[in-house]
Amino acid sequence: MVIDGFQKKQFSNITVLGKYLYFSDYNRTDSNQESRILIAAWKQGNFYWGAPILCNLLTPSDPNYPGRINLTDGNKMYGSVLDIRLVGNPADDTAYSELLGVIIEVQAEGKVLP
């Protein structure tokens, strides 16, 4: 299914192709949402790393939900554009690495794709 480039999307996960981990310390949408994907959220596959795109850190607080952690329990990230800053893992800082590609999976907002 093709999603219109101008249609709002819900961002679900990210895959970084390469041997070494690149984590995301800052994500921002055109809907003024911010998030990050910490090193602990990434899982390694065969020559790639994958992680969910976590929730909006700027989600307003809710007095009915004390102890909520916005990164995991906040509003889902959505928008037409997602800016992601990828940073190399400091543990691999002395190794040569190549980032071969990035795949971001999305869903049309309000629709479940087959």
Please describe what this structure looks like.
The protein contains one helix and eight strands; from the N terminus they run βββββαβββ. The chain has one helix at 70-73; strands at 9-17, 22-29, 34-37, 43-44, 48-52, 78-79, 82-88, 101-108. A hairpin with a 4-residue loop joins β2 and β3. The strands form two sheets. Strands 1, 4, 5, 6 and 8 form a five-stranded antiparallel beta sheet that branches. A three-stranded antiparallel beta sheet has the order 3-2-7, with no helix packed on it. By secondary structure, it is mostly beta strands. The model has no long low-confidence stretch (mean pLDDT 87).
Entry keywords:
three-stranded antiparallel β-sheet; 1 helix; 8 strands; mainly beta; 39% strand; 114 residues
Helix and strand topology:
Blueprint: E1 9-17, E2 22-29, E3 34-37, E4 43-44, E5 48-52, H1 70-73, E6 78-79, E7 82-88, E8 101-108
Antiparallel strand pairs: 1-5, 1-6, 1-8, 2-3, 2-7, 4-5
Give start-end ranges of low-pLDDT stretches. none
Mean pLDDT: 87
In terms of structural class, how would the helical and strand content be classed? mainly beta
Q: Describe the biggest sheet?
A: 5 strands, antiparallel
Beta fraction of the residues? Answer: 35-45%
Order of helices and strands: EEEEEHEEE
Number of strands: 8
Tally the helices. 1
Shape: globular
Percent range for helical residues?
under 10%
Radius of gyration: 15 Å
